[in-house]
Amino acid sequence: MPRAEPIVDMTPAIELRATRRAFGSVVALDSVSLTIAPGEFFALLGPSGSGKTTCLRLIAGFDQPDSGTILLDGEDVTNTPPFARNVNTVFQDYALFPHMTVAENVAYGLRVRGVAAAERARQASEMLDLVRLGEFGARRPHQLSGGQRQRVALARALINRPKVLLLDEPLGALDLKLREEMQAELKGLQQRLGITFVFVTHDQGEALSMADRVAVFSQGCIEQLDTPRELYNRPQTAFVASFVGSANVVGRAAAQVLTGRNFAFAIRPELIDILASGEPAADGYVQCAGEVVDVLYHGASSRLRVKIDGQTTLAVARAEIAGSGVEGLTTGARVSLAWRPEHAVPLQY
Amino acid sequence: MPSEQPRRPSWERPSLFTRAMAAAGLVFLHAPVWVITLYAFTTEDRTYQFPPPGLTLHWFDVALARNDIWESMRLSLLVASAATLLAIILGTLAAFALARRTFSGKESITLLFVLPIALPGILTGLALLAGIRTVGLEPGFWTIVAGHATFCLVIVYNNVVARLRRIPPNWVEASMDLGARGHQTFRYVLLPQIATALLAGGMLAFALSFDEIIVTLFTAGHERTLPIWFYSELFRPRERPVTNVVAVVVILVTLVPILLAYYLTRPDEQSQGN
Lengths: 349, 274
Prior knowledge:
heterodimer, A: about 350 residues, alpha+beta
């Protein structure tokens, strides 16, 4: 079971305490505190410029915070250079060395540590087997496909047996099908090796499907830190609601009219029912009427936008099955919407 | 290597006039080299009359027997080697310092590095001579080397800086991340990448130093490099073809590194592709 909070009496694999980093007048990371447990698969999720990559670079040691402390395995590494940290990184564009063979790339971490050539070769081929590239050791990186290079980068980062593996947008450069395969592969690898994985992504689907816990970044701060399920079902802020679940965010004024309570809330598109004309909503449902702005057909489902007042437009997703109320609806049609009040998630801001 | 060039449409093919002008340009550049070579074999030793009255290998014997030629040749090779080595070390260091970092005064420092190549040689020479005199040094081998290094350094610096800017910064990060210290990152990741730039820059620097005369005149003292030897030889009334013989030797000797550099730096998919 994924857990919302790490186990308390275990030394955290990574701890950030009030870490701040500014570039000139731009505050990339604003006093962020974060605790990641050993063996966790942790996602830093956010749009570009939200501070997630800065956070990863601080953990790797490529950058130093202006203030705050970074601990790895309980040890203060704030001023420790990258080569002295037991952390390895898989770069977004893999950063493989083009003048070395695949096997030499993988063995690089051992080479700079003075491991003998024969032992290096043995461990490198073991690592290549682990990522199913046993045959490719003698090739050059440019002779491999994107997915294969990605796995070389993984093998290279894992050969030093790090306590923590950092992955910067690890699947960003891959096409959709390969990305889904690699998601499963990464997840499996992490469970087999049992080491802490921290990955940066802007793709909420990737974060939700792979991570044990997700920190959602916005404007240099963590908006919410939770399990994927909690994030999706219980977003705390309007930003998380719209970024993670593509939920509808209903502001205070509109909420007052709809529910009689002065409290902003989020409601997910697939939890809004469309009522057949004249049909009354079931007991206790929140109900409203509106005009269809547009309809997008997605095959298994359709997505409508319904304008319910001057400011508020709700997205509604319905399965394309009989009785879902979506057939025959076109722009301009009048519809009645309803949802269960407990599906509306109150937001802090 | 492309095995077959696709035929280009007629409007993209050069006209007869363009081809003729290109050929004329090439002849203009290369004909003097052939003339010099031809007169190394002439039987006439006072004037360059055309066509030569006869051909002989006699001047090669004469040249071989003259020690001053080989002394100058040896000096020029030593000076060029020392200046190139100095330029490679200092130019590479400067390039690493200035390639990526930004700091106040960086532009001024870059300009100071590049200036010697733009400055007229006569100014560099004069300034160096004044400087050498002021500190009480005797002009000689090392003052020539120092003079040549001022402009050789620029060549190496420019080549290495251009290459370094093309190296993605995260290669260095990846290397550090995997546990490499600074000198290991340099040795295993950066040096293989800048090696061809060093080779090309070094060869060019060597060539510039080998035939430099203006700065050398000021800094050489009593030493006589090959260009100075050529220059003084022009005023001798007899045995003129000896200078041509030496020129031919120089041409042959410089051809080797040029061909080598061409061979080593030609685009190669094995090392360039990524």
